[in-house]
Amino acid sequence: MKVLVTGGAGYIGSTICSALEDRGHTPVILDSLITGRIEFTKNRIFYKGDIADLALVDKIFEEHPDICSTVHCAALTVVPESVADPYNYYNENVAKTNILLKKLCELGCKDFLFSSSASIYGDTKKQEVTESDPLNPQSPYAATKYMCELIMRDFSVAYGARAIVFRYFNVVGADPSMRTGPYKDAPTLLLPRLILHDKGLGQFKLTGVNWPTRDGTGVRDYVHVWDIAMAHALAVERFDTVCADAPFQAINLGSGSGVTVREFIRDFEAVVGHKLDIEETDPRPGDVAGAFTKIDKAQNLLGWSPTLSIQSAIADNLKWYDIYNSNK
Question: Taking the mean position of all CA atoms in its chain, how far away is CA 60?
Answer without folding.
Answer: 24
